[in-house]
Amino acid sequence: MSLLLNILWLIFGGFFVSMGYIAGGIALCFTIIGIPWGMQCFKLAIFALFPFGQDTRMADRPATQDLVNVILNIIWLIFGGIWVMLNHIFWGIVLCITIIGIPFGIQHFKMVKLSIWPFGREIYGLKNGERLF
Fold first, then answer.
1. Which residues of 12-24 are buried (b: 16+ CB within 10 A; e: fewer)?
2. Where does the Inner membrane component domain start and stop, copy by copy (predicted)?
């Protein structure tokens, strides 16, 4: 079922969402200082490509790395994370208005978690629970 929903997701907009994140990641990686944020855009692009059968969770990290992640997430939030989050919330609401769009709206709501606080989050598969990215 995840395969079928991922194919439909790609056809009806998931590909363009992913390409937007890839374009943003490439643009950020052109600057030396933007590389960490560009890598998070690539993480979002992978998650946006095939969201069915995946989820995100906070990674178990040492406390020193948590502080760095919080600082990087605050910078992410100020310079674009809010707009990315609002975009996913908007499309999630629009898609949930129709019965057919509810599964796709739920995927946008799942992407909100990753789009607002990407540093320190990891993507994992739901079936086997292994870390994907």
1. eebeebbebbbeb
2. 4-54, 71-121
